[in-house]
Amino acid sequence: MTITRRNVLLGGAASAALITTAARAQTKEVVIGVIYPLSGASAQIGVDAQRAFETAADIINNKYDFDLPLAREEGLPGLGGAKIRLVFADHQADPQKGRAEAERLITQEKVCAIIGTYQSAVAVTVSQICERYQIPFLSADNSSPSLHRRGLKFYFRPAPHDEMFSKAMFDFFDALKKKGQKIETLSLFHEDTIFGTDSANAQLALAKERGYKVVADIKYRANSPSLTAEVQQLKAADADVLMPSSYTTDGILLVKTMAELGYKPKAIVAQDAGFSEKALYDAVGDKLEGVISRGSFSLDLAAKRPMVGAINEMYKKRSGKDFNDYSSRQFMGLIVMADAINRAKSTDGEKIREALAATNMPGDHTIMPWKDVKFDAQGQNDDADPVLLQYVGKKFVTIFPPQAAVAEAIWPMK
Amino acid sequence: MTAYLVQRRPREGGDPYVEDFQFDLFLTFPASKRRSWLWVPAFAGTSGNGVSGVTAETIIQSLASGLLMGLLYGLIAVGLSLIFGLMNIVNFAHGEFLMLAMYAAFFLFAYFAIDPLLAMPFVAAAMFIFGAAIYLLIVRFAMRAKTNVGMVQIFATFGLAIVLRGLAQYFFTPDYRSITHSWLGGKTISIGGIFLPVPQLVGAGLSILAFGALYFFIKRTDFGRALEATREDAGAVALVGIDQNRVFALGWGLGSALVGLAGAIMATFFYIYPDVGASFALIAYVVVALGGFGSVFGAFAGGILVGLVEASTALIMPPSLKSVGIYAVYLLVVFIRPRGLFGSI
Amino acid sequence: MQDITHAQRRRRDLIIAAVLIAVAACVPMFVKDVYVQNIMVLTLMYAALSQSWNILGGYCGQISLGHALYFGIGAYTTAILFTKFGILPWFGMLIGGFISAAIALALGYPTFRLGGHYFAIATIVIAEIAFLLFLNWDWAGAALGIDIPVRADSWLKFQFTRSKLPYFYFALAFAAVAWLVTWWLENSKWGYWWRAVKDNSEAAESLGVVVFKSKMGAAAISAFLTAIGGAFYAQFVSYIDPESVMSFQFSLLISLPAVLGGIGTLWGPLFGAAILIPVTELTRSFIGGSGRGVDLIVYGSLIMAISLMRPDGLLGLFSRKRKKEAVR
């Protein structure tokens, strides 16, 4: 009594690939599970993620002239040209459901690897299940630093986590101070979720270590109907830098409420999330000229690496949006995983794990500003250098670190 | 806790928003003492370093913002209260009604460039039809249950809420929407350092007007009296020849139209997505219960009280716990007055 | 005459239950797929939870929409005692149950005086306060939740890496116990009082004080069982956070099977769970992947359709005779 759904739910690109596969017959396929919130409050992220993964699968399965692993061949040469097939599952932001879906993907869909999950709480249970079944789990876009410190053997994260992101911010402050800017006080503004808590803890620790004074540390309830009281406290504190860790909804409300209460922060350095979403800039972009957000992706990289622009166009055709910090990490997640499976020449979990652990992908073979992709013993890529981006003239430009920067930071913001 | 008057130093560079040289009453709490006084130490981490001074300005600003928000909560909740008063039904899809109204205002803006303020009558009319239709197509049948009518209608409307969310995601996509330019949006009035955002001000004014009109409507018009009579004794009303179904349908229409007003005004300053109603639904239930089920004036008072309590809780407790203040006040009120402030049923 | 049929019916119910348990216990021999086993575990868990809820919400008519509070306390007590103090979950489970029962008694005193919707909203609000406190309570993991490390299969620690069978049998036993408690209560002195109060408000007044006490008892039993369910959930998922064990949605999920199956009936919760949980899981797994909210539409329509077409619960479909008897 098993329930399979065979060809029901394949992503567009993957199903197109399947048809050509069927035509030529007999080519193996490699099934990878992708677990995201596809309904509920964060469905938008999940739907965008689907497009990002489909774009990556398209590049792997078909021939493209990009300097990206597996782009120039059809399918995975290590497995005789096998194609990648993605199976999407919906976890509805519920750790229990994520766990059940991971188990279903492993036992029924026979996936050889799982990628996920956006919400860190779900990554906790999904990675646990993967560990139990000895299937590699790649955490594409979870940024909670606690995730890779749980002693899991099958956990991998090519992208930076919040401590690395926060460290980049403080490096940036230190650099500005050397140039004579006055940065002494900070206001933290973070939601009451894993993401917000972890981010604030990292920032508090760094502030203490580097001698910045945190004049307001405001934790708020995610998706509050009103942020007036919170913004008042920020306004009263009036720190040199406001550091929000908020998702899109609260980000929009925060910016609107600040304008309503006449609070104009001297500078905003955001922990990504909502502050890298198009929806936020569509809504309140006019009030955010000069806002700085951490990121792991920047479109201006396209000037140095033309394939970044071309791949972005491919993604845009599917989703109607430019790559952002999330979709770019999701895209890279599948590329890194497929590259490891290709080198493992096998769909066996342990072999893929070994291949992942041995990953050494130079930065210029990615679409990211990273130095390279290499995993430490805990499965974290410590060379995924985060960047700081500033929103100037309706687009983001890289301003930090110096080697990646294309422009000088405008400080304080307008 | 110490209080002292200080002369505020003008800010460097001069801030266009803040008048220079202004006297403030400072109430300061030593950080460590504040924590233990306000909250058990285990929770101290949440209050963080806090803000060292709570000024008179902050307090007045908080209360003003709380009042505006409270009037809006009242407007959101009054439809719920009206429907409940009429037929003893709690609409668990109320938040989703609000969501639909916000989307209606958004699409009128996006496709026809109609300002939400102008769109308000259209949104209210559309919601009126929608509400009446929901009654005729769904709720009417939920009321036929012989036993546990309360539970049946809770779950019928709960199911409806999930369907509406799903439909919104299906047709409107889960993208976050927002009205960028409107006559009201982004404008703010400052009086002596107290900032009053125009959309919320208009919303508050609208709320007062709506409550006034509703009161007049119920007391002075034939239909209003029919509503009132139906609610008091449905059986007797049927004998007099009033079509109960018609009255109920109009009641649902009216209740939904009121949410429509709230949704249209909220669309000018709030984000819109399929789950947006959830943030407001629970508050609306508490507002209605606090004021007393079935009392229109209760919803008005309940809304204001909830707004003020929410704002002042955030002054003394970590903002992430500000809803706790609302809930505690609700419990306090019903423990003393089991039918809410002005409830009769 | 009526007493005899009543006694016969009770015996029949007991026999049916025994047969069902025996059959259910054999099912895993034929169903090896973990995904399906997972659905069975969840179904039994929700049946038991809803059965526990039904004691207070159905039989006593105290519609609680805040049972996530007891569930969460059960889950948190076990998880905290195990991860911080090394106390085995079996003890943690009982401790959590007693804490929940104590809380239910403390809350019952002021809240039972409230009528209908005031009571329901009070329960929502109390659970929501607890939810917010846990979300901000650093020592209990706050938003990070508690990750229970799973090392090796062990009955002592009640954790199993891949096998679902131990969880299945625990859930089965849990559902059986919840059913038996309800079965026993139905025919007890308390059960008679509750029925008398529902049917007749005069009886309610004369019985006032004793009924109040019996309801407190029901609340304690209901909370205790719900907390056991919470502890089970913590072991089963091996990760808990406030959002997944204490949210308002969860309170609704606990009461839903009873409402759909037939509120205040012996078989309603089991029947409701047997339909609702597989549908929830299957719609998400097989149409949720589209990302267009179709699963929500199907799931919501189903709840709506059932509550509209069978307002007295799905059970009404089968026992028309009993329904007539109930309506009289």
Helix and strand run of chain A: HEHEHEHEEHEHEHEHEHEHHHEEEE
Name the poorly predicted regions of chain A: 1-26
Radius of gyration of chain A: 21 Å
Strand order of the largest sheet of chain B: 1-2-3
Give the helices and strands of chain B as they follow along the chain: EEHHEHHHHEEHHHHHHH
Given the helix and strand composition of chain B, which structural class is it? mainly alpha
Helix fraction of chain B, binned, reads 55-70%
What's a concise summary of this model?
The complex is a heterotrimer of chains A (414), B (345) and C (328). Chain A is an alpha/beta fold.
Q: What descriptive keywords fit this protein?
A:
heterotrimer, A: about 425 residues, alpha/beta, Rossmann fold, 2 domains, 5-stranded parallel beta sheet, 12 helices, C: about 325 residues, mainly alpha, 13 helices, 2 strands
Can you give a write-up of this model?
The complex is a heterotrimer of chains A (414), B (345) and C (328). Chain A is an alpha/beta fold and 414 residues long. Chain A folds into two domains: 12-160 and 304-373, Rossmann fold (3-Layer(aba) Sandwich), CATH 3.40.50.2300; 162-295 and 387-400, Rossmann fold, CATH 3.40.50. Chain A contains twelve helices and 14 strands. In chain A, the strands form four sheets. In chain A, strands 2-1-3-4-5 form a five-stranded parallel beta sheet, sandwiched between helices. In chain A, helix 9 links the parallel strand 9 (269-270) and strand 10. In chain A, helix 1 (12-24) packs parallel to helix 2. Chain A is globular. Mean pLDDT of chain A is 87; it is low at 1-26. Chain B is mainly alpha-helical. Chain B has helices at residues 31-38, 44-47, 56-87, 94-112, 116-142, 149-172, 198-220, 222-232, 234-240, 244-266, 277-291, 296-316, 322-336, and strands at 2-7, 23-28, 53-55, 188-191, 194-197. Chain B has a three-stranded antiparallel beta sheet with strand order 1-2-3. Chain B has a two-stranded antiparallel sheet with strand order 4-5. In chain B, a hairpin with a 2-residue loop joins strand 4 (188-191) and strand 5 (194-197). In chain B, helix 3 packs across helix 11 (277-291), helix 7 (198-220) packs antiparallel against helix 10 (244-266) and helix 8 (222-232) packs across helix 10 (244-266). Chain B is globular, with a radius of gyration of 22 Å. Chain B starts with a strand and ends in a 9-residue tail after the last helix. Chain C is mainly α. Chain C has one domain (2-248). Chain C has 13 helices and two strands, in the order αααααβαααβααααα. Chain C has a two-stranded antiparallel sheet with strand order 1-2. In chain C, helix 7 (189-199) packs across helix 8 and helix 11 (268-287) packs antiparallel against helix 12 (294-309). The relative contact order of chain C is 0.17. Mean pLDDT of chain C is 85; it is low at 320-328. Classes of the chains: A alpha/beta (414), B mainly alpha (345), C mainly alpha (328). Chains A and B meet through helix 2, strand 7, helix 7, helix 8 and helix 9 of A and strand 3, helix 3, helix 11 and helix 12 of B.
